Amino acid sequence: MQTMTGADLTIRLLERQGIEIISGIPGGANLPLYDSLYGSERIRHVLARHEQGAGFLAQGMARATGQPQVCFATSGPGATNILTAIADAKLDSVPIICITGQVPSSMIGTDAFQEVDTYGLSIPITKHNFLVRSAEELLETIPAAFRIASSGRPGPVLIDIPKDVQLQELSFEQWPEPGKPEQAPPAEKADLKQAADMINRAQRPILYLGGGVIISDASEQARTLMEKSNLPTTMTLMGLGAVPVDHELSLGMLGMHAAPYTNMALEACDLLIAVGSRFDDRATGKVSAFCPDAEIIHIDIDPSELGKIKQAHVGIIGDVQDVLTDLIPMVSADSRTEWISAVRNLRQAHPFVTPEADKANTPYGSIRKVADMVDDNTIVTTDVGQHQMRTAQLYPFRRPRRWLTSGGLGTMGFGLPAAIGAALAEPDTLVICFTGDGSLMMNIQELATAVEQQVNIKIILMNNNALGLVHQQQTLFYGKRTFASGYESQMDFISIARGFGMPTFDLAQCDNHAEMMREALESTGPCLIHVPIDVNENVFPMVPPGAANRDMIGADNNA
Amino acid sequence: MPEQSTNQIINHEILELTVHNHPGVMSHISGLFARRAYNVEGILCMPIGNRERSRIWLLVDEDQRLEQMIKQVEKLEDVLAVRRHDADHQVFVKLEEFFLA
Q1: Is any Cβ of chain B less than 8 angstroms from the Cβ of A109?
Q2: How far apart, in whole angstroms, are the C-alpha atoms of residue A470 and residue A466?
Q3: Average of per-residue pLDDT across A374-386
């Protein structure tokens, strides 16, 4: 017989799940949990400076490792602050478990100090959520949270624990089994057969890989299928690195900021093999004009994705890795000489152009130089905006789980805390965070966390003193009425970083930019590399929102 | 346009859900329909068996999005089963006497 409090039980159950790091911030309603954490020998706590930072820290760990990770916040503002990181995890299918303190049960509904309806607020942005009503329930809830977060299509789970439940004493006989992902049911044989027939029959097929391939650890299978059947392959923003983006069959990213030839190849294809991708609007452009001549095979573990945006001719529900493993032997080897050569011609006629990529102090050049100086195991995070799209366009991702970006929700402020999380999860791996001044400012307080933890992250700040992508859209689509997108005062990011105790490298203050970049990347611990850039440098090509992917601005100039 | 009640041209379907019985389940389900602006005409809910489960009856518009709605409902952790019935199912008809204007 074991006797302990709900708080002790929670921490012990997290230990039994194998959790080693928890990010969070304490407050009145979760202090019992923190008191129990104080006694834990297995779990290290990482104190963030804002709950959203704590949430993204956990996301960084989860995205890099694929394992569910945990973050803590207190009731009221602690909970509301962390919601953005949870919503972000929902849209990108990231398994995080957020444990919030709540006011004591007897005070719920009284507008108590720091009371907010965390359960109600988190319903639409979690995969599932719990309001725990007794310490005994924790025996079931904690393992269930891990099972739910990691099964099928992963996602965030929130557990709201009132303070009295944390303090309640409980006796129980037996520890529950840790929660584990459930095995997905196998796909229908007949569907697999039909899909294989379609691939074997197709003249101009394209493989379209999404984040599901990364989540399912199906990179090897995706590459085998791609190479066996010689399938030109495009990846979504979330799918980059599923196969090496510089593989000869790779078309890179599709959609709004794709290379011209990529969108043009999709326009011409007669079969689209969608694997773990969800036909997001930034990928498809105007849906009715997306792959207009193509039949569609759609493979996904989430049944609600099939037919949500595009009706597939064959829909296969299952774990991408299992489905591809079963599919590969049924697909015949094919050289596809004609189609491969047509795609090669498109690539030559409509290439992707990166101005000034040879100079380390330019938007594309800084990305190129970093990529040249680090190895394939390096983790790259970004914030959201022009720097993110440029990184997605240019960086040679060759492995899964090395590219961490906020895709679905598009949350500025993601990059820095996610980089810290990734570096904590993999202390021996170099982590690069490409960011912009607008994004960095949204979670800049986490510089303190980075310095405190001495994580090996290098922040590459492309500073145009503006919300660059907003500025770009106003320039292109709102009659050049750039408004509220340029900052009136210029921040001194070098002084700011120094104030946090972080080493800095300022490309504005040196002549040999590449050399300074190398020096920064080879330094130990965190640092900030300042790259001033021009606000009028836009990201091209660009498909206007709502337009068909064939209508790319900036693609003609490249031809 | 001549006067025409939209109620007469919208067809309905009835969904029968088996769910876990605890506070919050209703909120998950009604929220799912509400945030997609999907009209729910009627809701009935009572515990069944040993009260660990409940049955929820929903009277909903028949709409091209219904298929997707049902898939979303099926994804909810607390929803154990979803069955579809035609609008001539008796569950709401038998209640009509309690809803006279």
Answers
A1: no
A2: 8
A3: 98
Q: Do B31 and A303 touch (CB under 8 A)?
A: no
CATH 3.40.50.970 assigned to A2-172? yes
As annotated, the residues of chain A forming the CATH 3.40.50.970 domain(s) are 2-172, 363-532
For the stretch B17-66, pLDDT in tens is: 999 999 899 999 999 999 999 999 999 999 999 999 999 999 999 989 99
E strand spans, A360-512: 379-382, 403-404, 431-436, 457-463, 504-506
Please indicate whether, in this complex, the C-beta atoms of A131 and B74 are within 8 angstroms of each other.
no
Contacts of A301 (CB under 8 A, 6+ apart): A152, A153, A184, A212, A216, A276, A317, A318, A319, A320
Q: Does A185 touch chain B (CB under 8 A)?
A: no
> Domains of chain B: which residue ranges?
6-99
* Residue range A140-152: mean pLDDT, rounded: 98
In this prediction, residue B2 has a pLDDT band, given cuts at 50, 70 and 90, of: very low
E-strand ranges in A328-407 read 379-382, 403-404
Average pLDDT of chain B to the nearest whole number: 90
Cβ partners under 8 Å of residue A341, min gap 6: none
**Cβ–Cβ < 8 Å for A412, A398:** no
Give the model confidence (pLDDT) of A464-516 as tens digits: 999 999 999 999 999 999 999 999 999 999 999 999 999 999 999 999 999 99
Nearest CA in chain A to B73: A304
pTM of the entire predicted model: 0.96
**Given an 8 Å threshold on Cβ–Cβ distance, is B68 in contact with A307?**
yes
As a CATH number, domain A363-532 is: 3.40.50.970
User: What pLDDT sits at residue B10?
Assistant: 75
Amino acid at A58: A
Chain B closest-CA separation from residue A148 CA (Å):
8
CB of B47 less than 8 A from some CB of A = no
Report the pLDDT value the prediction gives residue B8, as an integer from 0 to 100.
Answer: 53
Hey, which residues does A272 pair with through a beta bridge? A206, A296
A275-313 pLDDT, tens digit each: 999 999 999 999 999 999 999 999 999 999 999 999 999
The alpha carbons of chain B give a radius of gyration, in whole angstroms, of 14
Give the closest-approach CA distance of B78 to chain A in angstroms.
9
Report DSSP state, residue A553: B
Touching check for B80 and chain A: CB below 8 Å?
Answer: no
* Residue A541: cis peptide before it, omega within 30 degrees of 0: yes
Class of domain B6-99: alpha beta
Any CB–CB contact under 8 A between B77 and chain A? yes
| B87 band by pLDDT with thresholds 50, 70 and 90 | confident
The CATH topology of domain A189-349 is Rossmann fold (3.40.50)
Q: Which of B21, B33, B12, B23 is nearest to B80 (CA)?
A: B21
pLDDT in tens, A404-441: 999 999 999 999 999 999 999 999 999 999 999 999 99
CB of B85 within 8 Å of any CB in chain A?
Answer: no
The tokens describing A466, both together, are: 């503006």
A interface test, pick of B77, B78, B80, B82 with most A CB neighbours within 10 Å: B77
CATH 3.40.50.1220 in chain A, residues? Answer: 189-349
Rounded to whole angstroms, the Cα distance separating B95 from B90 reads 9
Whether chain B has a CB inside 8 Å of the CB on A120: the answer is: yes
